Amino acid sequence: MIAPQIPKNEYQRQKAVEKYGLLDTLPEESFDNITRLISYICDTPIALITLLDKDRNFLKSHLGIPFNESPREISFCGHAINSDDDIMIVEDSRKDERFHDNPLVSEYGAIFYAGVPLVNNDGYKLGTLCVYDHKPRKLDSKQINAMLDLSKQVMNLYEQKYNNTQLKKFQTHLEERNENLKKFASIVSHDLKSPISNIVMLTELLKEENQSNLSEESIQYIEYLRTSSLSLRDYVDGLLQFYKSDHTIKKKREHINLSAFFLEIKELSAAAVNVDFEYPKDNNTTVYANKSALQQVFLNLITNAIKYNSKEHIKISISFEDTKSHYTFSVKDNGDGISENDRSKIFELFTTLGKEDRDGNMGSGIGLATVKRIVNYLDGTITVDSQINEGSVFHFTVCKD
Question: What burial class does residue 137 get, using C-beta atoms within 10 Å of its C-beta: 0-12 exposed, 13-18 middle, 19+ buried?
Answer without folding.
Answer: middle
